UniProtKB/TrEMBL annotation:
Residues 56-149 form the Methyltransferase domain. GO terms for molecular function: methyltransferase activity. It comes from the Bacteria. Signal peptide: none annotated. GO terms for biological process: methylation. Gene3D superfamilies: Vaccinia Virus protein VP39. PANTHER family: METHYLTRANSFERASE (PTHR43464), UBIQUINONE BIOSYNTHESIS O-METHYLTRANSFERASE, MITOCHONDRIAL (PTHR43464:SF19). Keywords: Methyltransferase, S-adenosyl-L-methionine, Transferase. This is SAM-dependent methyltransferase. InterPro entries: Methyltransf_25, SAM-dependent_MTases_sf.
Amino acid sequence: MTASINHAQAELWNGGSGSAWVDNRVTLDQMFVPLARFLVDRARETAQHLPSGRLLDVGCGTGGTTLALATALGGQWQLTGADISAPMIAVARSRAAHARAAVEFIGTDVQTHAFSPSRFDLIVSRLGVMFFDDPVAAFANLRAAARPGAALHALAWRCPAENPFMTVAERTAAPLLAGLPPRVPGAPGQFGFADRAHVTNVLTASGWEDVALTAVHFECAFAQADLREYASRLGPAGLALARMAPHERAPVVDALVDAYAPFVHNGEVRFTSACWHIAARAPSI
C-alpha cells in the first residue's frame, strides 16, 4: 500500500469498518446491485464509442462492481480497482482469482497515488468518492490519471433526510449509546458529497469539465435474515457496538432491528437509495 495522508479514513477502513464490510460483503453486494447496474450501463455507453480501453473503479471495496464491469466490457478493456482498505482489496483479489478475471486491484489512497499520467479512458465509483480529506486534490489526481476527454461517472449519497434507511441505526442508538459521534455536514464520510454546490465546486476546482449532477433513485433490497448482522456491524453504531460487552450489546441490537421494521416486507429489507449521479469529463487537448 502506498503512503496515505488520509490517516483517519485509512485507520477506519483498515480497522473495524473494513472488517465489517468484508464480513457483510454478500449482503452489501446484493443491496447495491441496482447501483452497479447503473454504472455498468454507463460503461457500456462508453464502450460503444471506444471498444477497448482502461477503466478505474475508485473505492472498489471487495470488488463486486469492478467484476461486474469486467464481465460487461469483456477482455478488450483493462480494469483496475483501487481502495484504501487492505482487507477489502485482499477479498477483491481473491474473488478475481476465483472468477479468473484479469482485473488489477491495488490497495492505495487514490488521493495521493502516483497513477501513470493520462492512463484511464473511464473512471467510475459506486459510493467511493465521499471519503477524501482533500477532495480537490483527490479529483485533481484522478483528472491527471485520465486521458484527454475521458469520462467520469460516480454515485454518491444525497443528504441524510433523503436517505432515512441509512440513518436508522444511529438515530435509534443515539439515546442508548454514550458518545456516538454526530454527523458533520460536508466532512469526509457517507454523506460528504450530499451538497450539490460543494460537489460541483470540487470537480470544477480540480480541473474537470462538463460537470453535471443528476438526482437518481435506486430500489435496493437484501434478505431479512441478514438484517441483525447488518444493523449491528455497519456505520457509526456498528463501531460503537463493537466496543461493548455482549450482554450490553444485545438489547441495543434488538432495538435497532425493531427500528428497521417499516422497511421489512415479505422476508426482505427494502428501501430507496437517493444518490447523485456525478458526471464529468477530462479536458480535451
